[in-house]
What does this fold into?
Amino acid sequence: MSDSLPNNLSVWRKLSPAYDPWDPLPVYQQYGEHRLTSVELTVTNLCNMRCEHCAVGETLTLTEGKRIPLADLLRRLDEVEQLETISITGGEPSFHEQTVGEYIVPLLRYARERGVRSQINSNLTLDLSRYELLAPYLDVMHISFNYLNADDFYEVGFVRSERRTPREAANKLYERMVDNTRALTKGGMLVSAESMINYRTHEKLVGIHQLIAEMGCQRHEVHPMYPSAFASNLPVLSLDQTRDAINQLLDGRRRDLWMLFGTLPFYACSSSEADRAIVERLRREPCVTVRNDPDGRNRLNVNVFTGDVYVTDFSDVPPLGNALHDRLDQVFARWKQHPLYSSVSCYCAAAACCGPNLLVADTYYRDVDFTKRQAIV
It folds into this structure.
Protein backbone atom coordinates (compact mmCIF):
# COMPACT_ATOMS: atom_id res chain seq x y z
CA MET A 1 0.00 0.00 0.00
CA SER A 2 1.16 3.50 -0.76
CA ASP A 3 1.47 6.21 1.87
CA SER A 4 0.44 8.80 -0.71
CA LEU A 5 -2.98 10.32 -1.10
CA PRO A 6 -5.70 8.10 -2.56
CA ASN A 7 -5.82 8.05 -6.36
CA ASN A 8 -9.54 8.86 -6.40
CA LEU A 9 -8.94 12.25 -4.77
CA SER A 10 -7.67 15.00 -7.02
CA VAL A 11 -7.54 17.32 -4.01
CA TRP A 12 -7.25 16.21 -0.38
CA ARG A 13 -9.35 18.97 1.11
CA LYS A 14 -7.85 20.55 4.19
CA LEU A 15 -9.89 20.42 7.38
CA SER A 16 -10.85 23.96 8.33
CA PRO A 17 -13.70 26.04 9.79
CA ALA A 18 -15.27 25.76 6.33
CA TYR A 19 -14.90 21.97 6.13
CA ASP A 20 -15.71 19.69 9.09
CA PRO A 21 -16.96 16.33 7.76
CA TRP A 22 -17.86 15.11 11.26
CA ASP A 23 -20.71 17.63 11.40
CA PRO A 24 -23.98 15.94 10.34
CA LEU A 25 -25.46 19.19 9.01
CA PRO A 26 -24.19 19.20 5.38
CA VAL A 27 -25.52 15.71 4.70
CA TYR A 28 -28.90 16.58 6.22
CA GLN A 29 -29.04 19.72 4.09
CA GLN A 30 -28.26 17.68 0.99
CA TYR A 31 -30.67 14.78 1.53
CA GLY A 32 -33.30 16.13 3.93
CA GLU A 33 -32.52 13.39 6.45
CA HIS A 34 -29.71 12.07 8.59
CA ARG A 35 -27.59 9.35 6.99
CA LEU A 36 -24.83 7.15 8.31
CA THR A 37 -21.56 8.81 7.28
CA SER A 38 -19.41 8.33 10.38
CA VAL A 39 -18.33 5.27 12.38
CA GLU A 40 -16.58 5.36 15.74
CA LEU A 41 -14.55 2.33 16.78
CA THR A 42 -13.77 1.50 20.41
CA VAL A 43 -10.51 -0.43 20.00
CA THR A 44 -9.44 -0.75 23.64
CA ASN A 45 -10.75 -0.59 27.19
CA LEU A 46 -7.27 -0.03 28.63
CA CYS A 47 -5.95 3.35 29.73
CA ASN A 48 -3.02 4.60 31.80
CA MET A 49 -5.18 7.42 33.21
CA ARG A 50 -8.49 7.67 35.03
CA CYS A 51 -9.77 11.19 34.32
CA GLU A 52 -12.66 12.24 36.51
CA HIS A 53 -14.67 13.53 33.54
CA CYS A 54 -14.12 10.44 31.36
CA ALA A 55 -17.34 9.67 29.49
CA VAL A 56 -16.45 5.96 29.22
CA GLY A 57 -14.78 5.59 32.60
CA GLU A 58 -17.04 2.80 33.80
CA THR A 59 -16.01 0.58 30.87
CA LEU A 60 -12.26 0.83 31.46
CA THR A 61 -10.62 -2.47 32.42
CA LEU A 62 -7.23 -3.92 33.35
CA THR A 63 -7.41 -6.73 30.78
CA GLU A 64 -9.28 -7.28 27.54
CA GLY A 65 -10.11 -10.11 25.16
CA LYS A 66 -9.73 -10.63 21.42
CA ARG A 67 -10.93 -8.11 18.88
CA ILE A 68 -13.12 -8.81 15.88
CA PRO A 69 -10.90 -9.89 12.98
CA LEU A 70 -9.82 -6.78 11.14
CA ALA A 71 -10.97 -8.18 7.80
CA ASP A 72 -14.52 -8.57 9.15
CA LEU A 73 -14.55 -5.01 10.45
CA LEU A 74 -13.28 -3.63 7.14
CA ARG A 75 -16.05 -5.47 5.31
CA ARG A 76 -18.61 -3.75 7.55
CA LEU A 77 -17.03 -0.38 6.77
CA ASP A 78 -17.07 -1.22 3.07
CA GLU A 79 -20.85 -1.64 3.31
CA VAL A 80 -21.33 1.96 4.53
CA GLU A 81 -21.70 3.54 1.11
CA GLN A 82 -21.57 7.17 2.25
CA LEU A 83 -18.82 6.80 4.84
CA GLU A 84 -16.94 10.08 5.29
CA THR A 85 -15.20 9.76 8.66
CA ILE A 86 -13.97 7.22 11.17
CA SER A 87 -12.96 7.90 14.77
CA ILE A 88 -10.80 5.56 16.85
CA THR A 89 -11.26 5.72 20.58
CA GLY A 90 -10.88 3.80 23.84
CA GLY A 91 -9.47 3.86 26.53
CA GLU A 92 -6.11 4.93 25.22
CA PRO A 93 -5.85 3.49 21.68
CA SER A 94 -2.04 3.45 21.76
CA PHE A 95 -1.83 1.67 25.13
CA HIS A 96 -0.20 -1.33 23.42
CA GLU A 97 2.19 -0.73 20.53
CA GLN A 98 1.03 -4.02 18.99
CA THR A 99 -2.52 -2.66 18.78
CA VAL A 100 -1.19 0.40 16.98
CA GLY A 101 0.78 -1.58 14.41
CA GLU A 102 -1.58 -4.50 13.79
CA TYR A 103 -5.02 -2.91 14.13
CA ILE A 104 -5.02 0.89 14.16
CA VAL A 105 -2.55 1.59 11.35
CA PRO A 106 -4.35 -0.78 8.93
CA LEU A 107 -7.65 0.94 9.77
CA LEU A 108 -6.11 4.33 9.05
CA ARG A 109 -4.53 3.10 5.81
CA TYR A 110 -7.92 1.76 4.74
CA ALA A 111 -9.51 5.14 5.46
CA ARG A 112 -6.82 7.07 3.63
CA GLU A 113 -7.04 4.87 0.53
CA ARG A 114 -10.83 5.14 0.50
CA GLY A 115 -10.79 8.93 0.91
CA VAL A 116 -12.32 8.76 4.41
CA ARG A 117 -11.13 11.23 7.06
CA SER A 118 -9.84 9.83 10.35
CA GLN A 119 -9.45 10.86 13.99
CA ILE A 120 -7.89 9.21 17.03
CA ASN A 121 -8.75 10.15 20.61
CA SER A 122 -5.58 9.89 22.71
CA ASN A 123 -3.94 11.36 25.81
CA LEU A 124 -0.51 11.52 24.06
CA THR A 125 1.32 10.49 27.24
CA LEU A 126 3.08 7.42 25.81
CA ASP A 127 6.16 7.03 23.62
CA LEU A 128 6.27 9.45 20.71
CA SER A 129 7.18 6.62 18.35
CA ARG A 130 3.69 5.14 18.69
CA TYR A 131 2.09 8.33 17.45
CA GLU A 132 4.64 8.78 14.68
CA LEU A 133 3.46 5.45 13.24
CA LEU A 134 0.06 7.08 12.67
CA ALA A 135 1.33 10.27 11.07
CA PRO A 136 1.28 9.20 7.39
CA TYR A 137 -2.43 8.33 7.53
CA LEU A 138 -4.10 10.30 10.31
CA ASP A 139 -6.15 13.46 9.79
CA VAL A 140 -6.84 14.52 13.40
CA MET A 141 -5.09 13.66 16.64
CA HIS A 142 -7.68 14.55 19.28
CA ILE A 143 -6.44 15.07 22.85
CA SER A 144 -8.07 16.11 26.09
CA PHE A 145 -6.45 19.16 27.69
CA ASN A 146 -7.97 20.69 30.81
CA TYR A 147 -4.91 21.91 32.68
CA LEU A 148 -2.90 24.98 33.56
CA ASN A 149 -0.01 22.94 34.93
CA ALA A 150 1.13 19.51 36.09
CA ASP A 151 -0.78 19.89 39.36
CA ASP A 152 -4.08 20.23 37.48
CA PHE A 153 -3.14 17.21 35.37
CA TYR A 154 -2.51 15.15 38.48
CA GLU A 155 -5.75 16.13 40.16
CA VAL A 156 -7.93 15.62 37.07
CA GLY A 157 -6.23 12.71 35.39
CA PHE A 158 -5.77 10.20 38.21
CA VAL A 159 -8.47 10.95 40.73
CA ARG A 160 -10.38 7.79 39.79
CA SER A 161 -7.39 5.45 39.90
CA GLU A 162 -7.77 2.47 42.23
CA ARG A 163 -4.19 2.98 43.37
CA ARG A 164 -3.08 6.60 43.61
CA THR A 165 -0.47 7.42 40.97
CA PRO A 166 2.67 9.01 42.44
CA ARG A 167 2.80 12.71 41.69
CA GLU A 168 6.29 12.42 40.22
CA ALA A 169 5.09 9.82 37.72
CA ALA A 170 2.12 12.01 36.77
CA ASN A 171 4.42 15.00 36.27
CA LYS A 172 6.51 13.00 33.81
CA LEU A 173 3.40 12.01 31.87
CA TYR A 174 2.30 15.64 31.73
CA GLU A 175 5.69 16.73 30.41
CA ARG A 176 5.66 13.94 27.83
CA MET A 177 2.17 14.90 26.67
CA VAL A 178 3.25 18.51 26.17
CA ASP A 179 6.49 17.49 24.43
CA ASN A 180 4.68 14.99 22.19
CA THR A 181 2.11 17.58 21.19
CA ARG A 182 4.78 20.09 20.26
CA ALA A 183 6.72 17.49 18.28
CA LEU A 184 3.67 16.24 16.37
CA THR A 185 2.33 19.68 15.52
CA LYS A 186 5.79 20.79 14.44
CA GLY A 187 5.87 17.76 12.16
CA GLY A 188 2.57 18.80 10.56
CA MET A 189 0.03 16.63 12.38
CA LEU A 190 -3.27 18.36 13.12
CA VAL A 191 -3.69 18.15 16.89
CA SER A 192 -7.09 19.21 18.18
CA ALA A 193 -7.08 19.80 21.94
CA GLU A 194 -10.45 19.48 23.66
CA SER A 195 -11.29 21.27 26.90
CA MET A 196 -14.32 20.55 29.03
CA ILE A 197 -16.32 23.40 30.50
CA ASN A 198 -16.84 22.11 34.03
CA TYR A 199 -16.59 23.04 37.67
CA ARG A 200 -12.77 22.87 37.57
CA THR A 201 -12.11 24.67 34.28
CA HIS A 202 -14.82 27.27 33.75
CA GLU A 203 -12.69 30.08 35.22
CA LYS A 204 -9.40 28.82 33.73
CA LEU A 205 -10.31 28.44 30.06
CA VAL A 206 -8.39 31.46 28.79
CA GLY A 207 -5.17 30.21 30.37
CA ILE A 208 -5.78 26.69 29.10
CA HIS A 209 -6.42 28.12 25.63
CA GLN A 210 -3.09 29.96 25.67
CA LEU A 211 -1.20 26.79 26.60
CA ILE A 212 -2.95 24.91 23.78
CA ALA A 213 -1.87 27.62 21.34
CA GLU A 214 1.71 27.55 22.67
CA MET A 215 1.89 23.78 22.07
CA GLY A 216 1.14 24.41 18.41
CA CYS A 217 -2.34 22.85 18.32
CA GLN A 218 -4.20 23.89 15.20
CA ARG A 219 -7.63 23.60 16.82
CA HIS A 220 -9.14 24.08 20.27
CA GLU A 221 -12.33 22.13 20.90
CA VAL A 222 -14.61 23.17 23.73
CA HIS A 223 -17.49 21.10 25.11
CA PRO A 224 -19.52 21.47 28.31
CA MET A 225 -19.27 18.46 30.59
CA TYR A 226 -22.44 16.41 30.99
CA PRO A 227 -23.24 13.67 33.53
CA SER A 228 -21.92 10.37 32.16
CA ALA A 229 -19.80 7.50 33.59
CA PHE A 230 -17.13 8.98 35.91
CA ALA A 231 -18.69 12.43 35.53
CA SER A 232 -22.18 11.29 36.52
CA ASN A 233 -21.87 12.58 40.08
CA LEU A 234 -19.75 15.67 39.46
CA PRO A 235 -21.26 19.15 39.83
CA VAL A 236 -23.07 20.40 36.72
CA LEU A 237 -22.64 24.03 35.78
CA SER A 238 -25.67 26.24 35.40
CA LEU A 239 -26.45 27.66 31.99
CA ASP A 240 -25.37 31.08 33.29
CA GLN A 241 -21.96 29.71 34.36
CA THR A 242 -21.45 27.96 31.05
CA ARG A 243 -22.44 31.06 29.09
CA ASP A 244 -20.11 33.27 31.15
CA ALA A 245 -17.22 30.84 30.62
CA ILE A 246 -17.72 30.90 26.84
CA ASN A 247 -17.87 34.69 26.76
CA GLN A 248 -14.67 34.97 28.81
CA LEU A 249 -12.93 32.50 26.51
CA LEU A 250 -14.03 34.37 23.40
CA ASP A 251 -12.77 37.63 24.96
CA GLY A 252 -9.33 36.18 25.72
CA ARG A 253 -8.71 33.78 22.84
CA ARG A 254 -6.27 33.94 19.98
CA ARG A 255 -8.37 34.96 17.03
CA ASP A 256 -6.24 33.09 14.49
CA LEU A 257 -6.69 29.70 16.18
CA TRP A 258 -9.66 27.60 15.05
CA MET A 259 -12.07 27.10 17.93
CA LEU A 260 -14.68 24.37 17.60
CA PHE A 261 -17.54 24.37 20.10
CA GLY A 262 -19.75 21.32 20.46
CA THR A 263 -22.75 20.06 22.45
CA LEU A 264 -23.56 23.62 23.50
CA PRO A 265 -26.87 24.02 25.37
CA PHE A 266 -27.72 27.34 23.67
CA TYR A 267 -30.06 27.64 20.71
CA ALA A 268 -31.42 30.23 18.31
CA CYS A 269 -34.96 29.27 19.33
CA SER A 270 -34.37 30.04 23.02
CA SER A 271 -36.69 32.39 24.89
CA SER A 272 -33.64 33.63 26.81
CA GLU A 273 -32.12 36.82 25.44
CA ALA A 274 -28.73 35.87 26.91
CA ASP A 275 -28.82 32.50 25.14
CA ARG A 276 -29.66 34.13 21.82
CA ALA A 277 -26.87 36.67 22.34
CA ILE A 278 -24.23 33.96 22.76
CA VAL A 279 -25.55 32.19 19.65
CA GLU A 280 -25.22 35.39 17.66
CA ARG A 281 -21.74 36.09 19.01
CA LEU A 282 -20.51 32.63 18.06
CA ARG A 283 -21.79 33.21 14.53
CA ARG A 284 -19.86 36.48 14.25
CA GLU A 285 -16.53 35.35 15.69
CA PRO A 286 -13.80 34.65 13.12
CA CYS A 287 -12.25 31.17 13.15
CA VAL A 288 -15.07 29.85 15.38
CA THR A 289 -17.44 27.01 14.48
CA VAL A 290 -20.23 25.25 16.35
CA ARG A 291 -20.48 21.57 15.43
CA ASN A 292 -23.82 19.80 15.47
CA ASP A 293 -23.29 16.60 17.44
CA PRO A 294 -22.72 13.48 15.29
CA ASP A 295 -23.94 11.05 17.96
CA GLY A 296 -27.36 9.70 17.09
CA ARG A 297 -27.43 11.64 13.84
CA ASN A 298 -24.79 10.47 11.39
CA ARG A 299 -22.60 8.25 13.57
CA LEU A 300 -22.64 4.86 15.25
CA ASN A 301 -20.12 3.35 17.68
CA VAL A 302 -18.80 -0.19 17.27
CA ASN A 303 -17.17 -2.05 20.15
CA VAL A 304 -14.54 -4.15 18.37
CA PHE A 305 -14.42 -6.75 21.16
CA THR A 306 -18.10 -7.68 21.31
CA GLY A 307 -19.27 -6.31 17.97
CA ASP A 308 -22.05 -4.42 19.75
CA VAL A 309 -23.20 -1.27 17.95
CA TYR A 310 -24.32 1.76 19.96
CA VAL A 311 -25.60 5.25 19.30
CA THR A 312 -22.50 6.57 21.12
CA ASP A 313 -19.63 5.06 23.05
CA PHE A 314 -21.08 6.42 26.30
CA SER A 315 -24.80 6.04 25.75
CA ASP A 316 -27.22 4.38 28.15
CA VAL A 317 -29.15 3.17 25.09
CA PRO A 318 -28.60 -0.61 24.81
CA PRO A 319 -26.84 -1.93 21.71
CA LEU A 320 -28.96 -1.67 18.59
CA GLY A 321 -27.27 -4.52 16.77
CA ASN A 322 -24.01 -6.38 16.38
CA ALA A 323 -21.42 -5.99 13.65
CA LEU A 324 -20.82 -9.74 13.62
CA HIS A 325 -24.18 -10.28 11.93
CA ASP A 326 -25.68 -6.84 11.13
CA ARG A 327 -24.80 -4.36 8.43
CA LEU A 328 -24.17 -0.94 9.98
CA ASP A 329 -26.67 0.75 7.68
CA GLN A 330 -29.29 -1.73 8.93
CA VAL A 331 -28.46 -0.82 12.51
CA PHE A 332 -28.73 2.87 11.65
CA ALA A 333 -32.15 2.31 10.06
CA ARG A 334 -33.18 0.51 13.25
CA TRP A 335 -32.05 3.49 15.32
CA LYS A 336 -34.18 5.85 13.22
CA GLN A 337 -37.22 3.82 14.30
CA HIS A 338 -36.26 3.98 17.99
CA PRO A 339 -38.49 6.13 20.25
CA LEU A 340 -35.47 8.19 21.35
CA TYR A 341 -34.49 9.08 17.80
CA SER A 342 -37.15 11.76 17.57
CA SER A 343 -35.47 13.60 20.45
CA VAL A 344 -32.33 14.15 18.34
CA SER A 345 -33.92 14.48 14.90
CA CYS A 346 -34.79 18.15 15.32
CA TYR A 347 -33.62 20.34 12.44
CA CYS A 348 -33.94 24.08 11.88
CA ALA A 349 -32.94 25.32 8.44
CA ALA A 350 -33.00 28.98 9.52
CA ALA A 351 -30.44 28.39 12.28
CA ALA A 352 -28.54 25.52 10.59
CA CYS A 353 -29.10 23.63 13.83
CA CYS A 354 -29.84 20.00 14.68
CA GLY A 355 -30.87 20.75 18.26
CA PRO A 356 -29.61 19.10 21.47
CA ASN A 357 -28.20 15.61 21.72
CA LEU A 358 -29.44 13.05 24.27
CA LEU A 359 -27.19 14.20 27.13
CA VAL A 360 -27.89 17.91 26.62
CA ALA A 361 -31.63 17.38 26.44
CA ASP A 362 -31.62 15.21 29.56
CA THR A 363 -29.49 17.68 31.53
CA TYR A 364 -31.19 20.97 30.71
CA TYR A 365 -34.30 20.44 28.56
CA ARG A 366 -36.21 17.37 29.70
CA ASP A 367 -39.62 18.95 29.17
CA VAL A 368 -38.87 20.86 25.96
CA ASP A 369 -39.99 19.71 22.51
CA PHE A 370 -37.55 21.45 20.19
CA THR A 371 -39.49 20.41 17.11
CA LYS A 372 -42.22 22.86 18.15
CA ARG A 373 -39.82 25.83 18.49
CA GLN A 374 -38.62 28.22 15.81
CA ALA A 375 -35.46 30.26 15.44
CA ILE A 376 -35.76 33.78 16.79
CA VAL A 377 -32.30 34.92 15.68
Remarks:
- The longest strand covers residues 191-197.
- The CA atoms of residues 7 and 340 lie 41 Å apart.
